Amino acid sequence: MIKIVLAAAALTIGVSYLAAGLVPKSSPQAPKPLAAAVEQPGSVTLRADDDGHFRVDATIGGRRVPMLVDTGATVVALSFEQAQSLGLIAGGDRFDLRVSTANGQVGAKRVVLRDLRIGSVSVPDVAAVVLARGAMTGNLLGMSFLGRLKRMESKGDRLVLER
């Protein structure tokens, strides 16, 4: 029970960013690539955007997934639409885990991501949640991924992730 409460509390911060529109909704134009500043085997250095946030293109199941790095989120959080496109949810799935967001409580479903990759940094079997349809428009890269890295270091507008 305490894990659920902690996960819900941590997601509140990240989902607040998304609800506030800091993660842009998809547009008909091709999305701007979210690039790593420097990449070496097992290490990637991210550059902050103009707002000071770290956005990254992750790979889940071989597919590109734009994410906002959120050290305040206990777990990786995916939008309903993103999870649906990845085949992680089905029509009859229940979203009975309750999480608090800037817009109030929403339903969520626990999932496990078999492989989540940022450049050459890969982590297997990452715990994640999928939020109910319409709860958020972006995706959060939380501590269920970040906490399994050998090193995560922030210096100015750079964030180093090392596995």
Automatic annotation (TrEMBL):
One GO biological process term = proteolysis
Read off the SUPFAM superfamilies from this record: Acid proteases (SSF50630)
Q: Which CDD domains match?
A: retropepsin_like_bacteria
Q: Which InterPro entries match?
A: Aspartic_peptidase_AS, Clan_AA_Asp_peptidase_C, Peptidase_aspartic_dom_sf, Retropepsin-like_bacterial
Mention one GO molecular function: aspartic-type endopeptidase activity
A Pfam family matched in the record: gag-asp_proteas
* NCBIfam families found in the cross-reference section: clan_AA_DTGA (TIGR02281)
Protein name, UniProt field = Peptidase
